[in-house]
Design brief:
Number of helices: 6
Number of domains: 2
Distance between the termini: 42 Å
CATH class of the largest domain: Alpha Beta
CATH architecture of the largest domain: Roll
Number of strands: 14
Helix content: 10-25%
Radius of gyration: 20 Å
Protein backbone atom coordinates (compact mmCIF):
# COMPACT_ATOMS: atom_id res chain seq x y z
CA UNK A 1 0.00 0.00 0.00
CA UNK A 2 1.52 3.33 -1.02
CA UNK A 3 1.36 6.54 1.03
CA UNK A 4 -1.54 8.05 -0.93
CA UNK A 5 -3.62 4.89 -0.62
CA UNK A 6 -2.91 4.74 3.10
CA UNK A 7 -4.06 8.34 3.57
CA UNK A 8 -7.26 7.60 1.64
CA UNK A 9 -7.99 4.55 3.81
CA UNK A 10 -7.43 6.49 7.03
CA UNK A 11 -9.63 9.39 5.91
CA UNK A 12 -12.41 7.08 4.72
CA UNK A 13 -12.39 5.21 8.03
CA UNK A 14 -12.47 8.45 9.99
CA UNK A 15 -15.38 9.84 8.00
CA UNK A 16 -17.27 6.59 8.36
CA UNK A 17 -16.71 6.69 12.12
CA UNK A 18 -18.12 10.21 12.12
CA UNK A 19 -21.21 9.07 10.27
CA UNK A 20 -20.34 11.14 7.21
CA UNK A 21 -21.62 9.23 4.21
CA UNK A 22 -24.38 9.57 1.70
CA UNK A 23 -26.88 7.39 3.55
CA UNK A 24 -26.44 8.33 7.20
CA UNK A 25 -26.97 11.66 8.92
CA UNK A 26 -23.80 13.05 10.53
CA UNK A 27 -23.33 12.22 14.20
CA UNK A 28 -20.90 13.56 16.76
CA UNK A 29 -17.28 12.59 16.22
CA UNK A 30 -16.20 10.59 19.29
CA UNK A 31 -12.68 10.19 20.69
CA UNK A 32 -11.67 7.46 18.25
CA UNK A 33 -13.10 9.42 15.34
CA UNK A 34 -11.20 12.58 16.32
CA UNK A 35 -7.93 10.67 16.68
CA UNK A 36 -8.47 9.07 13.26
CA UNK A 37 -9.12 12.49 11.72
CA UNK A 38 -5.98 13.86 13.36
CA UNK A 39 -3.90 10.96 12.04
CA UNK A 40 -5.33 11.50 8.57
CA UNK A 41 -4.50 15.19 8.79
CA UNK A 42 -0.90 14.57 9.84
CA UNK A 43 -0.46 11.89 7.17
CA UNK A 44 -1.73 14.27 4.49
CA UNK A 45 0.53 17.02 5.84
CA UNK A 46 3.59 14.77 5.63
CA UNK A 47 2.59 13.85 2.07
CA UNK A 48 2.13 17.56 1.18
CA UNK A 49 -1.34 16.76 -0.08
CA UNK A 50 -4.19 18.75 1.54
CA UNK A 51 -6.66 17.10 -0.85
CA UNK A 52 -6.23 13.93 1.20
CA UNK A 53 -7.00 15.63 4.52
CA UNK A 54 -10.65 15.76 5.67
CA UNK A 55 -10.79 19.55 5.21
CA UNK A 56 -14.01 21.50 4.81
CA UNK A 57 -14.25 23.59 1.66
CA UNK A 58 -14.16 26.79 3.74
CA UNK A 59 -11.46 25.66 6.18
CA UNK A 60 -9.62 28.47 8.00
CA UNK A 61 -5.89 27.75 8.38
CA UNK A 62 -3.40 29.69 10.51
CA UNK A 63 0.26 28.78 10.98
CA UNK A 64 2.56 30.68 13.34
CA UNK A 65 -0.10 33.42 13.66
CA UNK A 66 -0.29 33.91 9.86
CA UNK A 67 -3.43 33.20 7.84
CA UNK A 68 -2.53 30.85 4.98
CA UNK A 69 -4.17 28.51 2.52
CA UNK A 70 -3.89 24.71 2.78
CA UNK A 71 -0.78 23.77 0.83
CA UNK A 72 1.23 26.69 2.22
CA UNK A 73 3.49 26.82 5.27
CA UNK A 74 4.48 23.42 6.63
CA UNK A 75 2.24 21.84 3.99
CA UNK A 76 4.85 22.86 1.40
CA UNK A 77 7.94 21.56 3.23
CA UNK A 78 6.95 18.56 5.40
CA UNK A 79 8.49 15.23 4.42
CA UNK A 80 7.78 12.84 7.31
CA UNK A 81 5.74 12.58 10.50
CA UNK A 82 7.13 10.91 13.63
CA UNK A 83 4.50 8.46 14.93
CA UNK A 84 6.33 7.66 18.20
CA UNK A 85 5.94 11.19 19.57
CA UNK A 86 2.32 12.17 19.26
CA UNK A 87 0.19 13.50 22.11
CA UNK A 88 -3.55 13.65 21.41
CA UNK A 89 -6.14 15.65 23.34
CA UNK A 90 -9.51 14.67 21.79
CA UNK A 91 -12.60 16.53 22.96
CA UNK A 92 -15.88 15.27 21.45
CA UNK A 93 -17.92 17.77 23.50
CA UNK A 94 -16.11 20.70 21.86
CA UNK A 95 -15.66 19.03 18.47
CA UNK A 96 -11.94 19.68 18.75
CA UNK A 97 -8.67 17.82 19.00
CA UNK A 98 -5.21 19.04 19.88
CA UNK A 99 -1.96 17.34 18.95
CA UNK A 100 1.71 17.89 19.68
CA UNK A 101 4.04 15.86 17.48
CA UNK A 102 7.29 16.02 15.51
CA UNK A 103 7.54 16.42 11.75
CA UNK A 104 10.57 16.49 9.46
CA UNK A 105 10.66 19.32 6.96
CA UNK A 106 12.83 20.26 4.01
CA UNK A 107 14.97 23.38 4.51
CA UNK A 108 17.90 24.96 2.60
CA UNK A 109 20.13 23.24 5.18
CA UNK A 110 18.62 19.82 4.58
CA UNK A 111 15.95 17.77 6.36
CA UNK A 112 15.30 19.10 9.87
CA UNK A 113 12.80 18.06 12.57
CA UNK A 114 10.35 20.55 14.04
CA UNK A 115 7.93 20.29 16.93
CA UNK A 116 4.37 20.86 15.81
CA UNK A 117 1.30 21.81 17.83
CA UNK A 118 -2.02 21.48 16.00
CA UNK A 119 -5.56 22.57 16.83
CA UNK A 120 -8.33 21.08 14.70
CA UNK A 121 -12.01 22.09 14.84
CA UNK A 122 -14.29 19.38 13.47
CA UNK A 123 -17.86 19.74 12.27
CA UNK A 124 -19.80 16.91 10.59
CA UNK A 125 -16.59 14.94 10.14
CA UNK A 126 -14.77 17.77 8.37
CA UNK A 127 -12.03 20.07 9.66
CA UNK A 128 -13.31 23.65 9.61
CA UNK A 129 -10.35 25.24 11.42
CA UNK A 130 -6.71 24.18 11.52
CA UNK A 131 -4.02 25.96 13.50
CA UNK A 132 -0.29 25.22 13.66
CA UNK A 133 2.59 26.34 15.84
CA UNK A 134 5.86 25.15 14.33
CA UNK A 135 9.00 25.36 16.49
CA UNK A 136 12.54 24.31 15.55
CA UNK A 137 14.21 21.56 17.57
CA UNK A 138 17.46 22.98 18.88
CA UNK A 139 19.83 20.06 19.32
CA UNK A 140 20.24 16.31 19.70
CA UNK A 141 19.48 16.44 23.43
CA UNK A 142 16.06 17.98 22.93
CA UNK A 143 15.46 15.73 19.94
CA UNK A 144 16.03 12.71 22.18
CA UNK A 145 13.48 13.98 24.71
CA UNK A 146 10.94 14.30 21.90
CA UNK A 147 11.40 10.73 20.70
CA UNK A 148 8.34 9.66 22.72
CA UNK A 149 5.97 11.33 25.20
CA UNK A 150 6.64 11.00 28.91
CA UNK A 151 4.74 7.83 29.94
CA UNK A 152 2.57 9.43 32.62
CA UNK A 153 1.57 12.25 30.26
CA UNK A 154 -0.42 9.96 27.98
CA UNK A 155 -1.45 7.29 30.51
CA UNK A 156 -5.16 6.57 30.82
CA UNK A 157 -6.77 7.62 34.10
CA UNK A 158 -8.76 4.97 35.98
CA UNK A 159 -12.44 5.59 35.29
CA UNK A 160 -13.29 6.11 38.97
CA UNK A 161 -10.56 8.77 39.28
CA UNK A 162 -11.46 10.79 36.17
CA UNK A 163 -12.25 14.43 36.80
CA UNK A 164 -15.17 16.31 35.19
CA UNK A 165 -14.34 18.13 32.02
CA UNK A 166 -15.20 21.55 33.50
CA UNK A 167 -12.85 21.05 36.46
CA UNK A 168 -9.97 20.07 34.19
CA UNK A 169 -10.59 23.15 32.04
CA UNK A 170 -10.65 25.43 35.09
CA UNK A 171 -7.37 24.03 36.41
CA UNK A 172 -5.75 24.44 32.99
CA UNK A 173 -6.93 28.05 32.85
CA UNK A 174 -5.40 28.68 36.29
CA UNK A 175 -1.99 27.80 34.86
CA UNK A 176 -2.06 30.99 32.78
CA UNK A 177 -3.15 33.03 35.80
CA UNK A 178 -0.19 31.66 37.74
CA UNK A 179 2.19 32.69 34.97
CA UNK A 180 0.61 36.07 34.35
CA UNK A 181 0.50 37.07 38.02
CA UNK A 182 3.77 35.41 39.17
CA UNK A 183 1.97 33.41 41.84
CA UNK A 184 2.57 29.67 42.00
CA UNK A 185 -0.30 29.21 44.46
CA UNK A 186 -2.92 30.18 41.85
CA UNK A 187 -2.58 26.80 40.10
CA UNK A 188 -2.59 23.40 41.85
CA UNK A 189 0.91 22.20 41.00
CA UNK A 190 1.86 18.74 42.24
CA UNK A 191 5.20 18.21 43.94
CA UNK A 192 6.35 16.11 40.98
CA UNK A 193 5.28 18.73 38.41
CA UNK A 194 7.68 18.87 35.45
CA UNK A 195 7.53 21.23 32.49
CA UNK A 196 9.12 20.71 29.08
CA UNK A 197 9.30 23.68 26.71
CA UNK A 198 10.44 22.99 23.15
CA UNK A 199 11.98 19.78 24.48
CA UNK A 200 13.91 21.52 27.27
CA UNK A 201 13.25 20.75 30.95
CA UNK A 202 12.50 24.20 32.37
CA UNK A 203 10.89 23.28 35.69
CA UNK A 204 10.67 20.19 37.84
CA UNK A 205 11.70 18.42 41.03
CA UNK A 206 15.39 17.92 41.66
CA UNK A 207 16.57 20.72 39.38
CA UNK A 208 19.27 22.88 40.92
CA UNK A 209 18.38 26.56 41.39
CA UNK A 210 19.74 28.75 38.63
CA UNK A 211 19.67 32.47 37.81
CA UNK A 212 17.63 33.81 34.89
CA UNK A 213 19.56 33.79 31.63
CA UNK A 214 20.05 37.56 31.33
CA UNK A 215 21.82 40.03 33.62
CA UNK A 216 20.05 42.63 35.75
CA UNK A 217 19.88 46.37 35.13
CA UNK A 218 23.32 46.79 36.69
CA UNK A 219 24.94 44.12 34.55
CA UNK A 220 25.03 41.57 37.35
CA UNK A 221 23.69 38.05 37.33
CA UNK A 222 20.58 37.69 39.53
CA UNK A 223 20.67 35.16 42.38
CA UNK A 224 19.59 31.55 41.67
CA UNK A 225 15.85 30.90 41.83
CA UNK A 226 13.88 27.76 42.61
CA UNK A 227 12.99 25.55 39.67
CA UNK A 228 10.09 23.57 41.02
CA UNK A 229 6.81 24.61 39.37
CA UNK A 230 5.42 26.50 42.38
CA UNK A 231 8.67 28.16 43.43
CA UNK A 232 9.64 29.24 39.93
CA UNK A 233 6.24 30.81 39.26
CA UNK A 234 6.28 32.67 42.59
CA UNK A 235 9.88 33.87 42.23
CA UNK A 236 8.98 36.77 39.94
CA UNK A 237 11.00 35.17 37.16
CA UNK A 238 8.18 35.85 34.68
CA UNK A 239 7.11 39.26 35.97
CA UNK A 240 8.25 40.86 32.70
CA UNK A 241 5.18 39.39 30.92
CA UNK A 242 2.78 42.21 30.03
CA UNK A 243 -0.17 39.97 29.25
CA UNK A 244 -1.19 36.55 28.03
CA UNK A 245 -3.74 37.16 25.29
CA UNK A 246 -5.98 34.93 23.18
CA UNK A 247 -6.09 32.24 25.88
CA UNK A 248 -8.06 29.21 24.70
CA UNK A 249 -8.49 25.94 26.53
CA UNK A 250 -9.90 24.29 23.42
CA UNK A 251 -9.61 20.56 24.14
CA UNK A 252 -10.11 18.61 27.36
CA UNK A 253 -9.87 14.83 27.68
CA UNK A 254 -10.92 13.32 31.05
CA UNK A 255 -9.87 9.85 29.84
CA UNK A 256 -6.20 10.87 29.92
CA UNK A 257 -6.59 13.80 32.30
CA UNK A 258 -5.32 16.19 29.65
CA UNK A 259 -6.19 19.76 28.72
CA UNK A 260 -4.66 21.73 25.85
CA UNK A 261 -4.54 25.46 25.41
CA UNK A 262 -3.18 28.06 23.03
CA UNK A 263 -2.19 31.58 24.03
CA UNK A 264 -0.22 34.63 22.94
CA UNK A 265 2.35 36.08 25.36
CA UNK A 266 3.26 39.76 24.95
CA UNK A 267 6.46 41.20 26.39
CA UNK A 268 7.21 44.89 25.78
CA UNK A 269 10.17 44.68 28.21
CA UNK A 270 9.13 48.06 29.62
CA UNK A 271 7.70 47.01 32.98
CA UNK A 272 10.92 47.99 34.76
CA UNK A 273 12.60 46.34 37.75
CA UNK A 274 10.54 43.68 39.54
CA UNK A 275 11.01 41.97 42.87
CA UNK A 276 12.79 38.64 42.39
CA UNK A 277 12.72 36.05 45.18
CA UNK A 278 15.77 33.79 45.19
CA UNK A 279 15.80 30.13 46.20
CA UNK A 280 17.33 31.07 49.55
CA UNK A 281 14.50 33.49 50.28
CA UNK A 282 16.48 36.66 49.61
CA UNK A 283 14.91 39.34 47.43
CA UNK A 284 16.40 41.72 44.88
CA UNK A 285 15.07 44.15 42.30
CA UNK A 286 15.67 42.77 38.82
CA UNK A 287 14.60 43.50 35.27
CA UNK A 288 15.20 41.17 32.36
CA UNK A 289 17.07 42.86 29.52
CA UNK A 290 16.12 41.76 26.02
CA UNK A 291 14.33 43.15 22.99
CA UNK A 292 10.50 43.21 23.02
CA UNK A 293 8.87 40.08 21.63
CA UNK A 294 5.71 38.00 21.47
CA UNK A 295 5.50 34.29 22.20
CA UNK A 296 2.56 32.32 20.81
CA UNK A 297 2.51 29.07 22.76
CA UNK A 298 0.77 25.72 23.12
CA UNK A 299 0.46 23.86 26.41
CA UNK A 300 -0.77 20.37 27.25
CA UNK A 301 -1.30 19.79 30.97
CA UNK A 302 -1.63 16.42 32.70
CA UNK A 303 -4.08 16.83 35.57
CA UNK A 304 -4.92 14.00 37.97
CA UNK A 305 -6.10 14.11 41.54
CA UNK A 306 -6.78 17.81 41.07
CA UNK A 307 -3.07 18.54 40.51
CA UNK A 308 -0.90 19.50 37.52
CA UNK A 309 1.79 16.83 37.11
CA UNK A 310 3.22 17.38 33.62
CA UNK A 311 3.29 20.31 31.24
CA UNK A 312 4.28 19.86 27.59
CA UNK A 313 4.77 23.23 25.92
CA UNK A 314 6.17 24.80 22.81
CA UNK A 315 6.47 28.41 21.79
CA UNK A 316 7.85 30.55 19.01
CA UNK A 317 9.50 33.97 19.14
CA UNK A 318 7.93 36.61 16.90
CA UNK A 319 7.96 40.43 16.75
CA UNK A 320 6.31 42.30 19.59
CA UNK A 321 2.62 43.14 19.26
CA UNK A 322 2.04 40.78 16.33
CA UNK A 323 -1.53 39.84 15.36
CA UNK A 324 -2.80 36.41 16.42
CA UNK A 325 -3.94 35.35 12.95
CA UNK A 326 -7.58 35.10 14.08
CA UNK A 327 -8.54 38.78 14.14
Amino acid sequence: MNARTLITVVVTAALAAAGCNDTAAPVACDRACLVSLADAYVAALAARDPKHAPLADNVAFVENVTRLAPGQGLWASAVRAHPTYRIYVPDPDAGSIGIITVVDRETPRGIEPVQLAVRLKVEAGRITEAEHLVAPIENNETRARLAAPRPNLTATVDEAARMPRAELAAIAASYYDSLDLSDGTLAPFAEDCQRLENGNITAGPGLAPEPPASVDVNGRSPPPIARDCIGQMSSGRFAYIDSIDNRRIFAVDPVQGLAMGLSHFRQSMTLGPQLLTAADGSQVMWAEKRDPYDLPAAHILKITGGKIHEVEALGIFIPYNSPTGWE
